[in-house]
Sequence to fold (232 residues):
Amino acid sequence: MSESDNTEKMRTLCHQWGGSLFGVADLRFFKKEEILISPPLMERFPYGISMGFHLSDGILETIENQPTPLYFHHYQRVNILLDTIGLMVTSAIQDLGYMAIPIPASQIVDWKNQKGHLSHKHVAQAAGLGWIGRNNLLVNEKFGSRIRLVTILTDLPLIISSPLIRDCGSCHACRPVCPAGAIQERQEDFDHLRCYEQLRTFAKTLHFSHNICGICVKACKGFKGSSGRGVH
Fold:
């Protein structure tokens, strides 16, 4: 099969299992310290398949000033679905005689720095699925930040997607609603500590087993619901 055939086969499988977004990143441009897998092994995986799921707009609308039990349950189930999609695509890749590593949608392996094996949003950005917004999340043109992501590392020859050269433009929908005051004018000034402390507070007071919020996720609807025009 050609690179094009491989790409379309995996894209189709992603959508058949419920995925909303699909892209391919060139992992060769990522630094060794950005992916917490042994460098000798990573050298075998030049491609990163990024897949996303569009969260329920209705459930997000239940969020006002704190995450809700509905959102908490939805968040967990979507992560499980994304892991399932990752497993199905991994199996298909292996059936073609290639290797693949599905990276869990939500797993912390470096607790001190609150990091997983890699940053799903940065792989998604490299795969052309969006850009990193003021809220420090991936922003997709169609769905905004109302998405969850999963990544597969592979050596299956694929067509690499083109990253978007775009930003949030004049849209500031997330800034005034952030309960932690963590979102600033410039994305690089995002206050990670304030955000994390707010997530911990929600988890403790609401008795959630995950550090979640969802307020800026709800606010970021993409350009379909924003006045932001971004940069082409």
Q: What stands out?
A: The two ends are 34 Å apart (CA to CA). The helical segments are 3-16, 39-42, 57-60, 69-95, 120-126, 192-206, 215-219. The chain has one domain: 1-232.
